[in-house]
Amino acid sequence: MLEPTRFVNLGLLLFSALALLAGAVVYFVGDAGRAAWIWRLGALPVLAVTLLASVEALRRRESRVDVLALLAIGGALLLGENLTAAAIALMLASGRALEEYAQARAQREMAALLAHAPRQANRYEGDQVVQIGLEAICRGDRLLVRAGETIPVDGSLLGPAELDEAALTGEALPVSRQSGETALSGTVNAGAAFDMVATTAAADSTFAGVVRLVETARQRRSSAERLADRYALWFVPLTVAIAGTAWLLSGDPLRMLAVLVVATPCPLILAVPVAIVSGMSSCARRGVLVKDGRALEQLAQAHTLFFDKTGTLTSGRARLVAIESDPAFGPDEVLRLAASLDQACKHVLAEAVVSAARERGLCLSLPTRVEEAAGAGVRGIVQGQAIVVGNFPFVSETAPTLPAWVPAFLRRLGFDGVTGVFVSVEGRICGGLQFADEIRPDTPRALRLLRKAGVTRITMLTGDHREVAETFGAVLGVDALCAEQKPADKLAAIEATRAAGRIVIMVGDGVNDAPALQAADVGVAMGARGVAAASEAADVVLLVDRLDRLADALLIAIRARRIAVQSVSVGMGLSGVAMLFAAFGFLPPLIGAVLQEAIDVAVILNALRARSKGSPHPHGTLSVTEVEHLKAEHAELGPVLDRVGWLADRLADLSGPAAVKELNELDTLLRERLLPHERQDDAELYPGIARLLGGDDPMSTLSGMHREIFRLARMLTNLTDALPAEGPDEPTLKLLQGLLYSMNAIIRLHFAQEEELYFALGESM
């Protein structure tokens, strides 16, 4: 392709500007002949480059708006209108430079993907382990993969292994693989070191296949037609027809030149790049990097959206969501014992257990005599007690008697498709911890805003099992979902939708998303925490860890494109009027050029409005510190919520006196910790947030939920105070259980709504 490079465009701009200025200086000192040659010289390089690009475009059967400028410059030079030629050349060079600036950010497509690939492997040679390059690996080689290393090639495991497959499958949590199972290249060893036998060479590995998919997608995707060139399809022939008719009827070639000069599509050449660059600048201020103008134009026209799940719609991290416990221990004690032992373990779930305990302010003890079973669990001594923490098979080996709640807990884990960690004390299973990849706090709001911005179909693509995918899909209200998707499957889904004529946005964050990101009309990467390969394959990168910024970018893109079209329409309308005056001889070429420059200024000023996108929160935002403080308060109240749910499940199994005791303790806990928090929110926090939101009473819904929480708490107090010492009767027991379940659901929903609001009002985080 004979398109000029960035440096050629910059050189043309500087040369034509200096030539126009130098010619003007020479002209005013009295040497008109030399000034004409300087102006001619300044126009010739632009003419030559434009001619080459136009010939190449014609060879590809593409319409280029530059052809009118080419005719105008050429005609002006042939007719001796050298100043006019120089002015048009400067305008054309400046338009090229602006457009090049808009596209200069997208030159590193594959660098990070290749950088993520493993470079070396550890191969057994006799009694030694030797580090070799990937190209030296042969099928049948025995390899050592140390903790934290990336698996270099596909292979068969020679022992158990704990693998982080998120880069290829999107699974948020590590998976346990046993001896004989396949380990895929590109996955990371999340546990102890293990041995494997290579079953492929590096060039035939799974990771290398992902790289090839990205390259194939790049080659298949045709470049988008520029907005300016689409208008050229009808504007160029119309202009040539008017100019030719004016010359034919008048016999004066200057009339033809004047028509071409005033028709030189400066609104197309300048206004469109200015509006697009301004839109890109507005996106950058919101933490969204749009790599080129084509991506912004496509973003403005897209109505079909594909999302990866893990790390995009969800946090991508294991988080404690529920605790089951034996009545003799209680939720906090189960978590405290598990976290105390897990302090000595480096497993990702152990880190999640410890983080959850610290969020709740639990005091941990130092473990002793710790023994870890890779991928299964850990055992040790905490405060003189034998503690075992891990998956169910591992923990149940030391606890032959199963409590009544365990089967139901296991069923719930299976239905929800989540991970469970069990805890035993002195051979007795005392509790279970449920972990899940939670929906990001801004995801529901982001999806609502995207639909409001014009997205009509949202599809979730995920490597998760269908049961897990369907649960998340139902919660988020997506229009369709595709589960158990490999990179090639995601790529096929994108290409099938594009083949149906729809403009597609794909949002992802992992290596497994890179082919689909590249194949989509607009690929969007979660750049703040996502894999670098996804960021490099994408057209748009969210530089802050907020999905709702995509909705901001979509609105900015729509506005920028609308302003570009508006500028083009007004500018071309004015040019059309000027063309008629020029055709009838009322505008000589030089005056036409001056008039055209005035039109240029008007449309460029209008196009610059695309940069002045106001803040989505004109009344202010919450600081990062304030948001984190509010989240910490909710974390501290987590044990209170767990106690409500735990008692609702266990109340019917407790003896009468024990039930009365637990109800009184919960009532005291609610009155001393939860209700003061809600009252303080109503009195101190909500008025400030209302000022940030604006409007008459924006916090009415959340305040209404406070009133319902107060009502339920008061009802619990009344029922508890009226209980006899021997405990509640059957009707009262059912009433109390219903009350506790209602309170648990409402408080959790209320906290989730508050956190979503805090996140929406927060600064870039």
TrEMBL record:
Key words, A-Z: ATP-binding, Cell membrane, Membrane, Metal-binding, Nucleotide-binding, Transmembrane, Transmembrane helix
Natural source organism: Jeongeupia chitinilytica
Keyword rRNA-binding: no
PANTHER family for this protein: CADMIUM/ZINC-TRANSPORTING ATPASE HMA2-RELATED, CADMIUM_ZINC-TRANSPORTING ATPASE HMA4-RELATED
Family from the record: Belongs to the cation transport ATPase (P-type) (TC 3.A.3) family. Type IB subfamily.
Domain P-type ATPase A: from-to ranges: 117-215
PROSITE patterns registered for this protein in UniProt: ATPASE_E1_E2 (PS00154)
Name recorded for this polypeptide: P-type Zn(2+) transporter
EC supergroup of this enzyme: translocase
